[in-house]
Amino acid sequence: MGKIVAIGNQKGGVGKTTTTFNLGAALAELDQKVLWVDLDPQASLTIYCGFDPDTFNKTIYNVLKGNSSIDHICQPTTFGPDLLPANLDLAIIEMELFNTIARERQLACVLSSVRDDYDFILIDCQPSLGLLMLNALTVSDEVIIPISCEYLAMRGVAGLLKMIDKVKLQLNSQLKIRGILPTMFDRRTKHAHDTLEQIRHQFEPKVPVFNHVIYRSIRFAESALKGESILTYAKNIPGAESYRNLARELSREANKT
Amino acid sequence: MGKIVAIGNQKGGVGKTTTTFNLGAALAELDQKVLWVDLDPQASLTIYCGFDPDTFNKTIYNVLKGNSSIDHICQPTTFGPDLLPANLDLAIIEMELFNTIARERQLACVLSSVRDDYDFILIDCQPSLGLLMLNALTVSDEVIIPISCEYLAMRGVAGLLKMIDKVKLQLNSQLKIRGILPTMFDRRTKHAHDTLEQIRHQFEPKVPVFNHVIYRSIRFAESALKGESILTYAKNIPGAESYRNLARELSREANKT
Ligand SMILES: Nc1ncnc2c1ncn2[C@@H]1O[C@H](COP(=O)(O)OP(=O)(O)OP(=O)(O)O)[C@@H](O)[C@H]1O
Ligand SMILES: Nc1ncnc2c1ncn2[C@@H]1O[C@H](COP(=O)(O)OP(=O)(O)OP(=O)(O)O)[C@@H](O)[C@H]1O
Ligand SMILES: [Mg+2]
Ligand SMILES: [Mg+2]
Question: Are B42 and A156 in contact (CB < 8 Å)?
Fold first, then answer.
């Protein structure tokens, strides 16, 4: 039974898509079968995989509406994981699902048919707390919360933590916060060191914070342009090593249960 | 009659809040009367101003719902501009406004009573294309679109441009794209130079791109932590100069009309 992990944070630009992509690629390197789900209408993950979102007739939007199946939209990628792509259509799903019965469980219904085909299902979430985020939290076993090591990002997490508590209470009692993942850590600045310390101080022990820290590097932006994972584009930089370590920790843990 | 400018981009972490804050502070330096509107449930702008969002009983959320007035929530700040603060309550406004008559015009109704008290009203938007963004575009004269000089950010703008076209057609024919503002430009990397060139190449002349570029500097994150504008915290860095130049351009133009 595949483990479903939502990668989310209402704060924008903290490395959600970059984490979903590189963690997925690193898990595939460990021979784990991975499915990527792009749940963001701006389709960053779909773009990162080298696809043009506008070329898809059917995406996760159509599957959520019930007029297409997962098999029909599932795309194999050159990185190992399969992808359920998104495009701009997804921006209107929140208004359209509004009056649907069990509107928070639409993604759960959809993913239940493929859950056993994968070891991991990683969901890239958009930077907001709407119905799509609720759907992701309702279907997930775990949540990883990337936070960039800067002041405003640290302050922006409160909303998500409140939503997670509500979802655990009323929609998905299994949901667990797997951890806060510090990203864009610039070793050269005092601000990053202070913020990282503050993140550990403010959130632990109630919310775990990973020991793995993703270092800031321009290679990440470059690798997205190149359409490569950091694991091949700049395999020896500290950030690549951190994603591999994160993948090892998750797959070791999953294989225990 | 004050000019209303929305600062928005569905892509997260591109410098929307930082631009709203520092542009507002720079306009205040030029003796312009400015109102900041925080339209993001994560309340980054409210936090940047030094407030704790949880301490407010009433925010822009209550004004949009009609159970409070602007005068009641308006906060003077030490930077010059007044602020209409936000907090997490705002996250549910989209579902609550869903069945309201003229749901896209609620912000327009609210701001019409104070429009003549200010020279500029700057709206900090959240990173998504929901009903709040629609409200911001429906009430605005102009839109400034910050884009960080990195690949994924450049690709994430398509959704907003489509929404702007629809709003111009059906809700607000005066709406104009004031310009794309390149942010987080790291002069040391080839990636930033290439992306900036690509931004100008892809968007101009249909969509104007400001000549002012905001350079990447850790001083921005530090100034947010300190609760200071970049104009006082690091007044001589190129990024501070760029925000001053941008303010000069906007106020010169506004005083012409
Ligand atoms: N460790 C890192 N060091 C430097 N740059 C990074 C790092 N991780 C991601 N980036 C870059 O930062 C930008 C934001 O990352 P990304 O798009 O993954 O964030 P996000 O949280 O998914 O954004 P959104 O909120 O829009 O979904 C991208 O240009 C990406 O290439
Ligand atoms: N020119 C710059 N150079 C370096 N860092 C910057 C710059 N402008 C903003 N930042 C920092 O980058 C981060 C993102 O900026 P900001 O929060 O303003 O973006 P945003 O688009 O408002 O994000 P969101 O999508 O979450 O609303 C913040 O930590 C901020 O301090
Ligand atoms: Mg993303
Ligand atoms: Mg913001």
Answer: yes
Nearest to B151 among A94, A156, A225 (CB): A225
- Tell me which residue of A119, A116, A113 sits closest to A29, measured CA to CA: A119
Which protein residue has the closest C-alpha to ligand 2 atom 25?
B12
| Chain A (196-235) residues lying within 8 Å, Cβ to Cβ, of chain B | 218, 221-222, 224-225
Asked if A48 is an interface residue toward chain B (Cβ–Cβ < 8 A), one would say yes
* Cα distance between residue A186 and residue B218, in whole Å: 10
Cβ–Cβ gap A221/B126 under 8 Å: no
Which band of pLDDT confidence, cut at 50, 70 and 90, is reported for residue A242? very high
What integer pLDDT is reported at residue A238 of this predicted model?
96
> Distance of CA A147 to CAs A10, A132, A180, A215, B11, Å?
10, 20, 7, 12, 16
Q: How confident is the model at residue A256 (pLDDT cuts 50, 70, 90)?
A: confident
Contacts of A61 (CB under 8 A, 6+ apart): A86, A87, A89, A90, A93
For the segment B149-169, the average pLDDT, to the nearest whole number, is 93
CA–CA distance, A144 with B233 (Å, rounded to integer): 34
CA B108 to ligand 3 centroid distance, Å: 30
Nearest-atom number in ligand 2 for the CA of B11 is: 25
Nearest to A36 by CA among A90, A106, A84, A108: A84
C-alpha B98 chain-centroid distance:
23
Q: Which of A13, A218, A221 sits opposite B14 (nearest CB)?
A: A13
The DSSP bridge pattern shows strands B142-148 and B176-183 to be: parallel
State the ligand closest to the CA atom of B220: 2
Task: Indicate the pLDDT class of residue B256, thresholds 50, 70 and 90.
Answer: confident
B80, B34 Cβ separation under 8 angstroms? yes
